[in-house]
Amino acid sequence: MTASIISGKELAQEKRRQLAEEVKGLKEQGITPGLTIILVGDNPASLSYIKGKQKASEEIGVAFKLEHFSEKMTEEELLNVIETYNEDDSCHGILVQLPLPEHISEKAVIEKISPEKDVDGFHPLNVGQMMVGQDTFLPCTPAGIVEMIKSAGIEISGKHVVVVGRSNIVGKPAGILLLNEHATVTYCHSRTPNLKEMTRQADILIAAVGKANFITGDHLKEGAAVIDVGVNRLDTGKLCGDVVFEDAMNKASHITPVPGGVGPMTITMLAHNVVKSAKKSAVNQPSK
């Protein structure tokens, strides 16, 4: 068996074409979707991620703005900046790039962003709505994962999904979204005994542990679909996922590559959320 590759890059390009058409329609109504990213400090990885978000925004016609502050910025100052954009009608999405300096509370910052502009899908109100299957802003990586699985024609309903990793950003919400699609979901993490016994039961395996080449062929059930969320840099400088790609190619039915898999879809789902927010504002606009 040779696995089919689910190209996040190709799917992202198709979705961005669709979003560009939607943005064109909004602009004809006098609305330009706007995304503001707030960065505190000079984390090189954060700067790299922001470049990708800027490129995607510009590609589909979203107005992009970066607010870049010194890492000496106080929590109160940051909360005040967020409040300014909460009240700015030209801004439809606010994203505070994580991680933040240690003296700033991530919780306070996430909760300060208006749920109507929380395009990361991290605000507790949006998380709660996701939990109960209501329409809301979905966290970008988990939403991208579901899109990729569906794009490959993989059945989710009734299948056993095993999620390795329980972060609030990827692992937990990915499991919830797939549960909402009628999968049976098992979460595994660093304290799960007999991990291989669990992962070998997976029809769909989501690897989100952040450890290079952690999932080997021994972890996989023959014919499983494997979604590799990990992006790890080896000593050689080469990027790799959490899954040993060659092992999965020989055993899985489907596999996402790293790079070119989940990453492009994450950024695209962020753009999707910004456009969704702009559409809502268009509906709520008072008629002239």
UniProtKB/TrEMBL annotation:
Its EC number is 1.5.1.5, 3.5.4.9. Residues 6-120 form the Tetrahydrofolate dehydrogenase/cyclohydrolase catalytic domain. One of its GO terms (molecular function) is methylenetetrahydrofolate dehydrogenase (NADP+) activity. It catalyses: (6R)-5,10-methylene-5,6,7,8-tetrahydrofolate + NADP(+) = (6R)-5,10-methenyltetrahydrofolate + NADPH; (6R)-5,10-methenyltetrahydrofolate + H2O = (6R)-10-formyltetrahydrofolate + H(+). Keywords: Amino-acid biosynthesis, Histidine biosynthesis, Hydrolase, Methionine biosynthesis, Multifunctional enzyme, NADP, One-carbon metabolism, Oxidoreductase, Purine biosynthesis. Residues 139-281 form the Tetrahydrofolate dehydrogenase/cyclohydrolase NAD(P)-binding domain. GO terms for cellular component: cytosol. NADP(+) binds at G165, R166, S167, V231. SUPFAM superfamilies: Aminoacid dehydrogenase-like, N-terminal domain, NAD(P)-binding Rossmann-fold domains. Signal peptide: none annotated. Pathway: One-carbon metabolism; tetrahydrofolate interconversion. InterPro entries: Aminoacid_DH-like_N_sf, NAD(P)-bd_dom_sf, THF_DH/CycHdrlase, THF_DH/CycHdrlase_cat_dom, THF_DH/CycHdrlase_CS, THF_DH/CycHdrlase_NAD-bd_dom. GO terms for biological process: L-histidine biosynthetic process; methionine biosynthetic process; purine nucleotide biosynthetic process; tetrahydrofolate interconversion. The keyword Ligase does not apply. Homodimer. Belongs to the tetrahydrofolate dehydrogenase/cyclohydrolase family. Catalyzes the oxidation of 5,10-methylenetetrahydrofolate to 5,10-methenyltetrahydrofolate and then the hydrolysis of 5,10-methenyltetrahydrofolate to 10-formyltetrahydrofolate. HAMAP family: THF_DHG_CYH (MF_01576). This is Bifunctional protein FolD. It comes from Metabacillus indicus (Bacillus indicus).
